[in-house]
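Possible regression after last week's pipeline update?

I re-ran a chain I had predicted before the update to compare outputs. Posting the input and the new output here so someone can diff against the archived version. Not blocking, just want to make sure nothing changed silently.
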Amino acid sequence: MAEVRITYDAEADAAYLYFADPRVETRVARMYPCDPVQVEGMINLDFDEASHLVGIEILAARSKLPGYLLEMAERVGPSGECNGAVACRRCNKDESTKTVEVREDELRDYLEP
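New output (post-update):
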């Protein structure tokens, strides 16, 4: 069974699921934001140049993912070290990467009627 790498930033309550082969350098070429109303939150799909899904970013992760996944996830952010992983939005800052920054109050606007 293939393993999926998961990182979690507890302070930002953001998780990232990596689908790219860790042995191959992969860059995010485009990001598709899922409709926040339909998914009741902020979920972004990241694709490489060949349109392969390489990762999923989940904001407000505690409300979207089972607790056991977050407990098993690699910690990043102020309490953990980001290791410069392929799809990490903080580390992957080339011009082809679209960085999405959403403040907690903006997310609340989507979730609250």
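Follow-up from reviewer: compared with the archived run. Strands lie at 5-9, 14-18, 30-33, 43-47, 53-59, 74-75. Marking as no regression found.
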